[in-house]
């Protein structure tokens, strides 16, 4: 995409392409009257002076500490991406695939449940479960998927809470299988 800008105006985050100037952010928004809290411009993926410190921890161990140029995380309400200079926030970690880019390529991990803290140059993930593709026991994940699918066939007999737990188990198993099939790019 080349040049880009992330403009935070009065608490709203807007991304616009730069072609010498910001193009059509909002036609009725008078930028001269708005107080711009942050303006980040640069070449996408290049020229970033300070990488993101990414740290992922589970109750059992520290999974990794690495410098990354980009991080994508499954939040409770969907995936979100983080670049250096991101606005701070705190959210819940959902079930899904964490990916990050560093100097050696793109890496993938299966993760579930926890908390994510995003700061301008740091992302900390406290996860209940987190595994790299090399650590995933594929046979165990296939078995968990099979069990969840079998249980779902009896949906009429399950309580709503039991059905949610089975759906979560299935989602975890599918995520683990997906990440296990990934290779670094």
Overview of the molecule:
The chain is of the alpha+beta class. It has three domains: 3-43, no CATH class; 52-132, F0F1 ATP synthase delta/epsilon subunit, N-terminal (ATP Synthase, domain 1, Sandwich); 138-180. 19% of the residues lie in helices and 45% in strands. It contains two helices and eleven strands; from the N terminus they run βββββββββββαα. The strands form two sheets. Strands 4, 5, 6, 7, 8, 9, 10 and 11 form an eight-stranded mixed sheet that branches. Strands 2-1-3 form a three-stranded antiparallel sheet, with no helix packed on it. A hairpin with a 4-residue loop joins β4 and β5. α1 (138-152) packs antiparallel against α2 (160-180). The chain is elongated and about 55 Å long.
Structural class: alpha+beta
Distance between the termini: 20 Å
Write down the domain tally.
3
Poorly predicted residue ranges: 1-48
CATH topology description of the largest domain: ATP Synthase, domain 1
Number of strands: 11
Number of helices: 2
The CATH class of the largest domain turns out to be Mainly Beta
Q: What's the rounded overall pLDDT mean?
A: 77
């Amino acid at each position: 995409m080349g040049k880009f800008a992330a403009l935070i105006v009065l608490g709203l985050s807007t991304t616009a392409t730069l072609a010498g100037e910001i193009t059509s952010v909002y036609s009725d928004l008078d930028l001269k009257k708005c107080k711009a809290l942050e303006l980040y411009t640069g070449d996408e993926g290049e020229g970033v002076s300070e990488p993101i410190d990414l740290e992922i921890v589970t109750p059992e161990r520290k999974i990794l500490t690495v410098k990354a140029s980009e991080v994508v995380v499954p939040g409770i309400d969907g995936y979100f991406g983080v670049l250096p200079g991101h606005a701070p926030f705190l959210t819940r970690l959902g079930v899904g695939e964490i990916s990050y880019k560093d100097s050696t390529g793109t890496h993938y991990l299966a993760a579930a449940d926890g908390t994510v803290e995003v700061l301008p140059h740091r992302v900390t993930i406290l996860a209940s479960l987190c595994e790299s593709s090399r650590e995933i026991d594929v046979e165990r994940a296939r078995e968990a998927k099979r069990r969840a699918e079998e249980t779902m066939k009896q949906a009429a007999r399950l309580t709503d809470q039991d059905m949610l737990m089975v759906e979560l188990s299935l989602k975890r198993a599918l995520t683990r299988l997906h990440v296990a099939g990934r290779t670094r790019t």
